[in-house]
Amino acid sequence: QINAATASRNLYTGVNSDLINSYAWDTAIVYIQNFSGDTDYSKQNSSNTSLENTGVNSDEKCKINDMASNAFEWTTEYCTNTRSSSACPCTSRGGSYDFSSYYTVVRNNFNATNSYGNISFRSALYM
Q1: What pLDDT is recorded for position 34?
Q2: Pair 97, 52: CB distance under 8 Å
Q3: What's the mean per-residue pLDDT of the chain?
Q4: Distance CA 118, CA 2 (A)
Q5: Are 79 and 91 contacting, i.e. CB atoms less than 8 angstroms apart?
Q6: What is the pLDDT of residues 20-64, one digit of tens each?
Q7: Is the dihedral of CA 34, 104, 65, 8 positive or negative?
Q8: Distance, CA of 51 to CA of 56 (rounded, Å)
Q9: DSSP-assigned letters across all residues of 11-50
Q10: Residue 85: is its pLDDT beyond 70?
Q11: In which element (H, E) is residue 5 found?
């Protein structure tokens, strides 16, 4: 998550950017549900069986890709959840190709020191 945050901040020149926060994630879901006609988008999950390039998996709503079905995505949200005495403060959002039971609005918590092949990140732009 730390690497994703750093990459998000350095991804663009001329504008400020950062790793997406959960407020922006939830706002995007509401936007999609209000303007795409897909009122159940927050409950959409993955039907994919493999990781795909952005926009390939038919999960595009209102020009926003892959919130429900490609890869979990790191956010700036902090969680105090612990598992087996091990802190898992890093929160990811969304669905993933290898977990069809997860959906757009889901929050997942992971350990900051581990690396996961099914987690990506999304930048928020501030102009």
Answers
A1: 95
A2: yes
A3: 84
A4: 16
A5: yes
A6: 999 999 999 999 999 998 899 888 877 777 877 887 777 788 988
A7: positive
A8: 10
A9: S-SSSEEEEPPHHHHHHHHHHHHHHHS-TTGGG-B---SS
A10: no
A11: helix 2-9
